[in-house]
Amino acid sequence: MNEEFILTGGYVGMQEIDRIIFEMKTRLEKEREKYFDPNRPTNTLAEVSQEDLNNVSTLWKLPTDYLYFLEKYSPIFVEWENDNYFALDICGAKDLIIAQNGFSYNPLSKEAIADWPKSYLVIATSNGDPFCIDLECENSPVFYATHGEGEWSFVEDSSSFIDFLNRVVV
Questions:
Q1: Along the 170 residues of the chain, how does pLDDT read in single tens digits?
Q2: Cα(17)–Cα(65) distance, integer angstroms
Q3: Could you give phi then psi for residue 34, rounded to 5 degrees?
Q4: CATH assignment at residue 67
């Protein structure tokens, strides 16, 4: 992929999400060089295990672009910061189920949380504030809300999951 990019001067034949992920991987490689710790792999986009993918696919019907992202590029301990986001943790398939704890699911009572929109799935957090996709929309916008406000008040952060990823890599 690197060679194709260099030779053509662009991202010929790649899907938009693959182009974004290529940019994410490039940035993460630079971060790993600075802060590499062999005992705790961080800043990695890895292939997902089939078991983790099956677990999330059994629970939710995921939008095509988000499922593709999880299948190909599942984040492991990745935190993004730029002009758009501060301490943004993007969920991989391995931690997607746990990411719902405290938002849509109470792990202590083992019950759904009543005031959480049933079709919203937390895909990232920033300092405890959730970023969600609406599972009822194929090309779902990404919504954001601030926790601790008494009730959830969501605003649109990005017009689609791909737009969200584009905002992450700027």
A1: 444 444 444 444 458 888 887 887 777 676 656 555 555 445 455 667 889 899 999 999 999 888 888 887 766 666 777 888 888 888 888 889 999 999 999 999 999 999 999 999 999 999 989 999 999 987 789 999 998 777 899 999 999 999 999 998 88
A2: 8
A3: -75, -35
A4: 3.40.1580.10
The answer to whether position 34 is within a domain reads no
Domain assignment present for residue 35? The answer is no
User: Could you tell me if residue 21 is inside a domain?
Assistant: no
User: How many structural domains is the chain composed of?
Assistant: 1
Distance CA 122, CA 134 (A): 9
The model carries a pTM of 0.78
Q: Is residue 1 part of a domain?
A: no
Half-sphere exposure of 139 toward its Cβ, with a 13 Å CA cutoff? 5
Domain housing 158 = 47-169
Which ranges of 78-126 does DSSP label H, i.e. alpha helix? 96-99
Of 37, 127, 55, 146, nearest in space to 89 by CA: 127
Phi/psi for 162 (5° steps) reads -65, -40
Question: What element of type H or E holds 157?
Answer: strand 155-158
